[in-house]
Design brief:
Largest sheet: 2 strands, antiparallel
Order of helices and strands: HHHEEHH
Distance between the termini: 55 Å
Number of helices: 5
Number of domains: 1
Helix content: 40-55%
Number of strands: 2
Strand order of the largest sheet: 1-2
Length: about 160
């Protein structure tokens, strides 16, 4: 085999390898980077106390972190590479709890907060719909607290497709 043919084969193998690696690590921009934001639950919320915590109207207001905390976190996350196509405009993102407070998400853990983009198909507005649905299902007893939390910790888009669409 000629050296130019060998080089072409090596180049092709490298390109195919990079394409496979890129597709294996690519994620929908509406999902967080799971190594940075795997989700975290609030140990104060359990299945046995949901009717005195998350199922009480106004509960999330009592545990929601102040905007001064979430704004600075969002800014540092965007500056640290957690942005969509280089967009670091904070108004294009909602600092969101991956596991929502409405289903027992941790209010302040950086493992549960991420800058969720608005300017994508699977955006914060769609996730909000799923949050409301899962909260309703948990409080009615149709689904367990842990099962609802898992929907968000695995792939909330798949959860949306299952429970909303």
């Amino acid at each position: 085999m000629k050296s130019s043919s060998k080089a072409a084969v090596v180049f092709t193998v490298l390109v195919l390898g990079l394409q496979v690696a890129a597709s294996a690590t690519s994620r929908d921009p509406g999902l967080p980077n799971s190594s940075l934001t795997p989700g975290a639950t609030n140990p104060q919320v359990t299945q046995s106390n949901i009717h005195s915590t998350i199922c009480v109207s106004g509960y999330t207001k009592t545990i929601r972190p102040p905007e001064s905390y979430t704004y600075h976190l969002k800014y540092s996350q965007l500056d640290g590479g957690y942005n969509y196509k280089g967009d670091t405009s904070t108004s294009d993102y909602e600092e969101d709890h991956l596991v929502p407070l409405e289903v027992g998400g941790n209010p302040t853990s950086v493992k549960n907060l991420w800058p969720e983009p608005w300017l994508v198909t699977w955006n914060a507005g769609k996730k909000d719909q799923l949050e409301n649905k899962m909260h309703s299902l948990v409080c009615s007893g149709a689904i367990s607290l842990v099962a609802a939390q898992k929907v968000f910790m695995t792939n909330w888009i798949a959860g949306y497709q299952k429970y909303i669409q």
